[in-house]
Amino acid sequence: MKDLKTLTPLTKILKEIQHINSAIALMGWDQETYMPLGAGQARAEQMSFLKGLVHEKQVGKEMSETLAQFVDLETGGLSGDANDWDEPASACLREVWRDYHHATCLPSDFVRKLGLETSLSHQVWIEARKKSDFSLFASNLKRIVALKKEEAEYLGYGDSPYDALMDRFEPGMTIAQVAPLFDALKAKLVPLVEKIQLSSVVPRKEIFQTYFAEKAQIEFGEKVLQAMGYDFSIGRQDLSAHPFTTSFHPTDVRITTRVDEKDLLSSLFSSIHEGGHGLYDQGLSVAHFGTPLGDSISLGIHESQSRMWENSVGRSKPFWKHFYPILQKTFPEQFEALGVEDFYSAINTVGPSLIRVESDEVTYNLHIMLRFEIERAIIEDDFPVEQLPVLWNDKMEAYLGVRPENDAEGVLQDVHWSGGAFGYFPTYTLGNLYAAQFFNQAKKEIPNLLEQISKGSLLPLKSWLNEKIHRWGRQYSSQAMVARVCGEAPDPAYFINYLEEKFGEIYSLT
Ligand code: MG
To answer: C or N terminus of the chain, fewer CB within 10 Å?
Structure first.
């Protein structure tokens, strides 16, 4: 049987590539945290040089000759008898070839053109958003859409060019799989949001808009991270304008948060969210570092980890049974007189909003549906880009009952399209679906999970995730991982039940 040892010449190159990638990521982290403003131009040049080096190594002679010893470079088929390879080795080759294919199938002229167009378009988008005028951005977006369609042709696809684009973020996932999941979800979410709006229950979310000292906020967040098992001896938390997680190695993972002294929830839930991402990265295999078996599966699975910690755990009653008394001690003036029930309802306030990143657990996914449907219309049906603001606003009204008054709070709010990231949005909702399904399984397999959480004992869940998901790297696709862990295909019912049960109680719905 041929195993991973057979692949030593290949993994040597992969590790070298990963070292450069780690240096790029470290530079990127520094850029968002401590880099002096004046270093921007130099840093951009350094990073772009290293990215070029990575590309050369990914498609160069050494890589292609070495990889060709194990697979057919055209098709990715294993050389010799496929049955000779054990499962980890064949999975590793499948994924290495996938990356190789993506790195080689786009002509370098096209890559340059797309790079130029997206960096230009990003600047124009910033300007258009500032002026709240979509027409300034429309012709750039048109060119990007044309390039993305061209890209889909190079990449190849089965049913829809959109599949080729989504595949970059959620490997193997297609419209045929996603659309039914999302349709089922939307059919339940729209009426749920309507019912919640009609409810006479009004959570007191204004309690979070008072003063909360930065230092105390960060210390409380770190207590929660420690309880989650985020290991500060192989990780850090720093401040940045937009919270993110990055990793240079499983023993060097960085998360960031931002603190608003007039809003407790922003930093708290971003720390828990990024902490969930961080646990995944710390849980990846050190032995397989640099190879696909030491890498995360997809954006959707990564997001399932952050969402599970943020929502299934961090916005749950059992969690606050333990942590609320600690929070009350941290902020006695603000919370002394407030009971845990009122606190719990307030952190779970639901209400239609115009901006995706400010939306709650229930309405969030409707923001995603809208983007997914619009992306399909553009990529599959040639929907005219000029008419996007109207389409956007009509859908907002239909799904959420609110209509943006200008482009900045409507079609121009997200950065993704300006960078050519079509097919990215669905991974946010997939993350929510996976999270609910994984958490449901965790409750079945971990004895008294909720009771443990209510005692502040979060490590059993962390260890379960390490064992079931993190340590496998990319050995399985996202769908295969869900099937392995839960014994069935991705199913939106778990998320729907979770929302209906939780918010039915909070809003006294019948
Ligand atoms: Mg995230």
So the answer is: C
Closest CA to 500 of 180, 194, 188: 188
Host H or E run for residue 246:
strand 245-249
Quote the ligand 1 centre to 462 CA distance (angstroms).
17
What is the C-alpha to C-alpha distance for residues 268 and 131, in angstroms, rounded to an integer?
Answer: 32
Task: Measure 310 CA to ligand 1 centroid, in angstroms.
Answer: 10
Tens digits of residue pLDDT in 440-498: 999 999 999 999 999 999 999 999 999 999 999 999 999 999 999 999 999 999 999 99
Could you give the residue numbers annotated as active site?
A: 274
**Distinct helix (H) and strand (E) counts, the chain:** 21, 3
pTM: 0.96
CA-wise closest residue to 14 among 82, 115, 92, 124: 92
* Separation of CA 356 and ligand 1 centre (Å): 13
Long-range contacts at 316-325 (CB < 8 A, ≥ 24 apart): 316/450, 316/453, 317/344, 317/454, 318/450, 318/451, 318/453, 318/454, 319/453, 319/454, 320/344, 320/347, 321/454, 322/453, 322/454, 322/455, 322/456, 323/224, 323/456
Decide: 503 and 192 in contact? Cβ < 8 Å: yes
205 C-alpha vs ligand 1 centroid, how far in Å? 23
Q: Which residue has 């995706």 as its token pair? A: 356
Coil, strand or helix at 256: strand
**Listed residue (227, 188, 237) closest to 498, CA to CA:** 188
351-395 pLDDT per residue, tens? 999 999 989 999 999 999 999 999 999 999 999 999 999 999 999
Name 405's Cβ contacts closer than 8 Å, sequence gap at least 6.
Answer: none
CA–centroid distance for 187 within its chain: 24
